[in-house]
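User: Can you recover a sequence for this backbone? Please restate the input before giving your answer.

Assistant: Of course. Working from this structure:
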């Protein structure tokens, strides 16, 4: 099959023929319809997040079931499906505790070694050299995915747009529902209105937030944030975000602030704009080694909680995400702003790095 291979850090993706093995017990073979373009993949390309090479990236896909491994139930060949980027093993210490987003097997086998859970990759070069898999390695015509991460897609949800459910929308649900615990009437700030941030805006609205303030340096992204539900926007290039948020919240700050970029300045902004007793949820993945500074005395004295959020729980949260989308409470047509043909996957990541993508982009394989 054709796939986009990252041979070494810092190089362009190379479209190549690779070999994909069949699904093993507990796994599903998927013909890929679309793959989301995520900034975390870009971190790997640039060497800001360690991952073995050669590898195939792409960790949020939609498509059709084309093969089913031994022991898999609840799916049929031909089903339209979406796959979550966290692929829980279902049996490690964290999965047993209900914390699939902390699955030890996923981190140890997939994120560190690029393998599935028998300790091998399903991908290889023609000469047999293993190729590491970032999640399910979705920048390819076909993928093999643990069944724990494969979900039948409701008919009402368009297949190509659905790809972004597996990371972008899934991650925003985990941040807003599980960690930020946004409830009706809460005030919210979202720092960085990119693919994840826009989803957090929309997810906060779906959870009943009374005011959602989007903060970014790009007026086009801020306009899109308003379209998906932000009540207010702040361009932090031209206006001090702390002063703006206090003006909008009667001098108090917000109940929950989300950081969705992964940089020291944006983390500091999120901490600054939260009210006393509020919650700061860090969602953006930063390059390894990046550290943030904030006023420790204020955090302590004002009982500010600083919380990390990585993805969500596949078995519980992905069905909830699908329900929100099927009910129209989360709209994908405003979130998926850019589409690229399969041959142009490399250009998609260059555009992402140069901030040309307004919301979320997908690489499509359906023509």
């Amino acid at each position: 099959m054709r796939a986009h291979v990252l041979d070494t850090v810092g190089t362009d993706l190379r479209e190549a023929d690779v070999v994909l093995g069949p699904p093993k017990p507990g796994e599903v073979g998927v013909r890929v319809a679309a793959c989301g373009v995520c900034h975390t993949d870009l971190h790997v390309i640039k060497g800001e997040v360690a991952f073995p090479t050669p590898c195939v990236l792409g960790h949020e896909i939609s498509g059709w079931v084309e093969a089913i491994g031994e022991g898999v139930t609840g799916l049929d060949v031909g089903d339209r499906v979406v796959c979550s980027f966290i692929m829980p093993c279902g049996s490690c210490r964290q999965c047993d505790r209900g914390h699939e987003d902390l699955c030890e097997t996923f981190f140890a086998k997939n994120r560190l070694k690029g393998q599935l859970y028998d300790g091998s990759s399903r991908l290889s070069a023609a000469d047999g050299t293993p190729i590491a898999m970032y999640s399910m390695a979705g920048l390819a015509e076909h993928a093999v995915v643990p069944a724990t991460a494969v979900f039948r897609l409701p008919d009402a949800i368009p297949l190509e747009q659905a790809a972004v459910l597996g990371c972008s929308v899934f991650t925003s649900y985990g941040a807003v529902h599980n960690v930020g615990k946004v409830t009706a009437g809460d005030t919210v700030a979202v720092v960085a209105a990119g693919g994840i941030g826009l989803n957090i805006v929309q997810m906060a609205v779906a959870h009943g937030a009374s005011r959602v303030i989007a903060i970014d340096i790009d007026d086009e992204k801020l306009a899109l944030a308003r379209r998906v539900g932000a009540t207010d926007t702040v361009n932090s290039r031209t206006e001090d975000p702390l002063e703006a948020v206090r003006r909008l919240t009667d001098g108090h700050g917000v109940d929950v602030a989300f950081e969705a970029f992964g940089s020291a300045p944006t983390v500091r902004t999120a901490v600054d704009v939260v009210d006393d007793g509020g919650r700061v949820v860090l969602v953006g993945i930063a390059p390894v080694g990046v550290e943030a500074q904030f006023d420790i005395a204020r955090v302590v004295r004002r009982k500010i909680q600083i919380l990390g959020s990585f993805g969500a729980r596949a078995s519980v949260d992905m069905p909830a995400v699908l329900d929100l989308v099927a009910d129209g409470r989360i709209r994908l047509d405003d979130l998926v702003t850019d589409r690229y043909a399969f041959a142009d996957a490399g250009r998609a990541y260059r555009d992402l790095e140069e901030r040309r993508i307004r919301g979320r982009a997908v690489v499509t394989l359906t023509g």
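That completes the design. The first strand starts at residue 2 and ends at 6.
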